[in-house]
Amino acid sequence: MSAIARIGSAFALAGLLAAGYAPGASAQDAGASYRGRLPQDEVVYFVLPDRFANGSPDNDRGGIPGERLQHGFDPTHKGFYHGGDLAGLLSRLDYIQALGATAIWLGPIYKNKPVQGRPGRESSGYHGYWITDFTQVDPHFGTREEFKALVDALHARGMKIYLDIITNHTADVIKYRDCDADPCPYRALADYPYTRRGGIDGAPINDGFLGDDAAHQDAANFARLRDVDYAYQAYVPDGEQDSKTPAWLNELRYYHNRGDSTWKGESVTYGDFSGLDDLLTEHPRVVQGFIDIFGQWIDDFGIDGFRIDTARHVKPEFWQAFVPAMLARAKARGIPNFHIFGEVYDPDPGMLARFTRVDRYPAVLDFAFQSAVADAIAGKAGTDRLARLFFFDADYEGGAPAALQLPTFLGNHDMGRFAHFVREARPGVGEDELLKRVELAHALLFLARGVPVIYYGDEQGFAGDGGDQDARQDMFASQVASYNDDALVGSMQTTAVENFASDGPLFRTIARLAGLRRDDPALRRGEMRVRYAGDAPGLFAFSRLLDGAETLVAVNTGDKPVSAQVLVDAGSQRWESAAGSCTPTSSAPGSVRVELPPLSYSVCRAKP
Questions:
Q1: Which bin fits 66, alpha (ψ -120 to 50), beta or left (φ > 0)?
Q2: What CA–CA distance (Å, rounded) separates 327 from 335?
Q3: Nearest CA among 108, 109, 53, 113 for reference residue 83
Q4: Burial classification of residue 114, based on how many CB atoms lie within 10 Å of its CB (0-12 exposed, 13-18 middle, 19 or more buried)
Q5: 134 CB neighbour count, 10 Å cutoff
Q6: Which helix (H) or strand (E) holds 45?
Q7: Quick check: pTM over 0.90?
Q8: Contact, 596 vs 554, CB < 8 A?
Q9: 608: preceding bond cis by omega (within 30 degrees)
Q10: pLDDT tens digits, residue range 60-75?
Q11: For 197, which of 52, 162, 243, 373 is 20 to 30 Å away at the CA?
């Protein structure tokens, strides 16, 4: 038995015991519990494996000889591999479970191009989004055997695992002979149609091709698309012709080859994503290829869901085929509650809802929630900003009940961390106030509708200096100077030492909120009904209603005490506190008094 398998077995047993299973119980016993949980029952911990824990220094360079521009490892540079891996993550499952997480969303683990970028501006694929082999684990992170040990250990604990997947693009391999610029300007369909070489004045090519709109996305039509020189003269540099797996990904005809996206208009779905090779996802071969690729990950490992990267950069017809195929594949594997949620980077709830109605996503990451909470708590908006957010829940396919499945979050690896947003919005904010605002944001994250997602390190007070690489700190002792000079929230520590303590204020707050959510089904599955909001910072109150039971949540986003009568169900007349101070008895049927100190919250449950 390998070392990783021994570690996995030990953690599997520890997880079973912690969950209350008798010695000798199997992962099947845990499965009776975790497989039956709905997506809205989870608390998700999102982790980039490279930045979490280094369990095996032997794989730091991914088995690649040479220096950092070959293997990509440089723990002093924020844009290179730092050494975190699957073995390290497996060794810290106790920590994650103690925080209250029931599922891990794992950043992409597939084999990446180790280094890419212009000379002098190179960085590595430590984040996982520059894939060359969609079938293997990146050797910087470990092996398929190690991934299986991690999945098995999580399932033995009754926890789930969601894989981050990408279908929009691959690593940057394809180049253009007739473009010296960086980035290469996007060339539009009207100016450079599929049927003319190099533009509308070029020689006829791809005779009989009828376009890539929904009505013509069939094998017979795409068989006529043979020449790829309609926009740029695309080619693959010597030595990289077979760099991608599966092999069909090496064929130029399966890419758009139109230059870099401008992030508007048609280029959103046709342009290269910051130089990454943009796949022709309209092509039936590409659709089936990705169904095969990611269906196999379900078959092989029994994972519990997908977070889908860059969802808005792929046309609806792809998702209309891909999503039901994945749900069916999971159901056949015995996974009835497979959770699929797409990344649609947009704060407009109408835009997010469109992807559940047109693209047929079961759920999308709730960027609208993130924006509203940042405005109301990190900024200076009134609490009516929050009320307006939840008003639009009716727009999602399935209405407000479907919004219960939306993963909610406060910050992430792209935009940055919530504590940084507070510091930006409130220059000179004191550390005590900063901590209270961050804690209050987490109260909304856990108590309002949706599936709370914790961005790794937030529980340790990580803040960072911005987004992207500036928000991807190491949990183990970091060697990055720009990380180590950051002031953590609620902690005297820095990132120069490992940060896995469970006694810090944010860790304790998050664990307590996760416990409240676990113990009260209404906070997971209950209807959310806004009860009170105003046009200035201050009181925001809402009820979670399930099976005749009511839980009233109130938050004060202002810097002064608040006191108000709040509407409740007429049958809810006696109250008990789950958190904060609660009035024991309603003032009258349908009305209860709420009083809160500045920057605080309360959770009150109606007694039967």
A1: left
A2: 9
A3: 53
A4: buried
A5: 23
A6: strand 44-47
A7: yes
A8: yes
A9: no
A10: 999 999 999 999 999 9
A11: 243
Planar angle of CA 308, 309, 312, nearest 5 degrees = 95
Nearest to 379 by CA among 434, 415, 425: 425
Give, in degrees to the nearest 5, the angle at Cα 39 between 34 and 41.
70
Query: Please, which residues bridge with residue 260 across strands?
Result: 272
Q: Is 57's pLDDT higher than 60?
A: yes
Two tokens at 550?
Answer: 């009511």
Candidates 41, 343, 375, 550; catalytic one: 343
Is 433 one of the annotated active-site residues of the chain? Answer: no
Taking 80 as the threshold, does the pLDDT of residue 14 lie above it?
no
Burial readout 221-242 (b: 16 or more C-beta within 10 A, e: otherwise): bbeebebbbbbbebebeeeeee
CATH tag, 346-519: 3.20.20.80
Determine contact, residues 318/281, Cβ cutoff 8 Å. yes
* Cβ proximity of 214 and 317 under 8 Å: yes
Picking from 501, 502, 549, the residue whose alpha carbon sits closest to that of residue 524 is: 549
Tell me how far apart the alpha carbons of residues 48 and 85 are, in angstroms, rounded to a whole number. 9
* Cα–Cα dist 198/332, whole Å: 46
For residue 488, give both structure tokens. Answer: 């953590």
Superfamily of 520-606 according to CATH: Golgi alpha-mannosidase II (2.60.40.1180)
Share the mean pLDDT of the chain: 95
Q: Fold identical between 1-168+284-343 and 520-606?
A: no
- And the tokens for 303? 């994972």
> How distant is the alpha carbon of residue 605 from its chain centre?
31
pLDDT tens-digit readout, 286-306: 999 999 999 999 999 999 999
Q: Of 37, 4, 327, nearest to 158 (Cα)?
A: 37
Do residues 445 and 452 touch, judged by C-beta distance below 8 A?
Answer: yes
- Please choose, from the candidates 276, 349, 354, the residue with its C-alpha nearest in 3D space to the C-alpha of residue 319: 354
What's the Cα-to-Cα distance from 151 to each of 105, 144, 268, rounded to whole Å? 12, 10, 35
Q: How far is CA 283 from the centre of its chain?
A: 27
DSSP 8-state secondary structure symbol assigned to residue 375: I
Class (C level, CATH) for 1-168+284-343 = alpha beta
Q: Which residues lie across from 549 on neighbouring strands?
A: 546
Report the percentage of the chain scoring pLDDT > 70. 95
Q: Are 539 and 596 in contact (CB under 8 A)?
A: yes
To the query of whether residue 576 is one of the catalytic residues in this protein, the response is: no
Q: Give the other-Cβ count within 10 Å of 598's Cβ.
A: 16
Kindly state the tokens that stand for 453. Answer: 């997602």
* Residue among 42, 133, 309, 474 flagged as catalytic: 309
Structure tokens at 255: 């890419």
Cα first-last separation, the chain: 54
| 76 Cβ contact partners less than 8 Å away, ≥ 6 residues apart | 479, 480, 481
Q: Are 206 and 226 in contact (CB under 8 A)?
A: yes
pLDDT tens digits, residue range 441-499?
A: 999 999 999 999 999 999 999 999 999 999 999 999 999 999 999 999 999 999 999 99
Domain ranges across the chain = 1-168+284-343, 169-280, 346-519, 520-606
